[in-house]
Amino acid sequence: MSDTNSDSDFTDQELDIIRATLVERYGHAVEIDLADAEMQLDPESDDMTICPTVYWTGEECHFVVCKTGKRRFYCQFFYGPDEMFGTGRLYYDDVFEAVASMLKLQSEHALKRRWTFK
Question: Which domain holds residue 71?
């Protein structure tokens, strides 16, 4: 069964913060896509909740920020189904902190990854 987290859509201000943070990181505007993700928010339950999601790609990597509550964000980056990473923190209460933390961790990971694959 899927519930909808409809009261928690991204606000225009949150989307502006994400866009500005991406411009700061990449030096240019990055296209973001709005989507929905099905998430298991309660580990004690099999119920899935549909959460508003922002998705983008950069430097051969995919990024998602899911809004799981009014001021609650989950983020993850991945290169493919076998290479998925979080930040080590389950939820953030600030979208800037969520995006900035994920981008910083991905940047560090990308450096290590480049050395590993050379």
Answer: 2-117
